[in-house]
Amino acid sequence: MVVATKNFILDTSVIVARLLEEKVSNSDISHYLDLFYQKKIHFFSPPIITTEVGNALKSAVLSRRINPDKAHAILKHFMKLPIKFSSPDPQKILQLSISKELSFYDATYLALSEKLHLPLLTLDKKLAALAK
Fold first, then answer.
1. Range from 6-10, 21-25, 80-84 carrying the lowest mean pLDDT
2. Strand intervals (E) in 1-132
3. Residue 125 backbone class (left: φ over 0; alpha: ψ -120 to 50; beta: rest)
4. Paired strand residues for 85
């Protein structure tokens, strides 16, 4: 379902899939990623996305999906992306993580989506359902 907006909350799962050149099964999300790279839409994320991307790259190296040089190149590319950072209220994150039984990390994206009143792009089915 394509949404008529130019701003979205970007979850780590989505950008990591693109960075690691994995097939994104959700065609709408794939479309939004294409629009982002064409500079036609904007992504917002909490600053923790950088740490999560780095952790995903480390895991990809340790599982031998990519080599360390490729991981460094991908991280360098990621750091240049025009993602706008915004931080939700930590108390709201905690409240959502408890009430929705989410990790504090996932609740951060949901809280930011609620704070900015923007749709959340995620490949996590539970998180996507809660964000609707």
1. 21-25
2. 7-10, 42-45, 84-85, 120-121
3. alpha
4. 45
CA angle 38, 40, 42 (to 5 degrees): 105
Residues 6+ apart with CB under 8 A from 59: none
Q: Which amino acid is at 56?
A: A
The token pair that represents 14 in the structure block: 């989505």
Structure confidence by residue, pLDDT tens digits, 109-130: 999 999 999 999 999 999 999 9
Task: Tell whether the model's pLDDT for residue 49 goes beyond 80.
Answer: yes
CA R_g for the chain: 15
Percent of the chain having pLDDT more than 70? 97
**Can you list the domains of the chain with their CATH numbers?**
7-85+121-126 (3.40.50.1010)
Is pLDDT at 1 greater than 70 in this prediction?
no
